[in-house]
Amino acid sequence: MEAYSAYWHNLFNFSGTASRKYYWWPMIINYILGIVLVTLIQSIAGQPIQDIHSFSFNTLSNIVLFLVWLATLSVKFRRLHDSNHSGLWILMEFVPLIGTIWFFILMVLPSKANRWS
């Protein structure tokens, strides 16, 4: 839970570092929470989540999605810094297939002494 708490506390922190633990635990927790929440909302609403057209629901879900995206972006920058790479390496994700694989490799690299510590 410490890693997940740090994930949200560093929402706007694009400098510094994040160890593998501080990157992977929030990613796993967010993935599981997403599945649980979507399943729960769909079962309560009785229809697929794409078919829910409520202004308040759409607004709330867009705000939550933006905050999760921003926190994930910042932890990716910090994780890259921890493995002694510039945050600009995040652009590798835009290269189809190869970029995704390479970015995954960057996320599993061990921590190194770096200039962002």
UniProtKB/TrEMBL annotation:
Leader sequence segment: none
One cellular component term from this protein's GO annotations in UniProt: plasma membrane
Protein origin, superkingdom: Bacteria
Keywords on record: Membrane, Transmembrane, Transmembrane helix
Transmembrane region(s): 22-45, 57-75, 87-109
Pfam families reported for this sequence: DUF805
InterPro entries in the record: DUF805 (IPR008523)
Name of protein: Integral membrane protein
Organism the protein comes from: Weissella minor
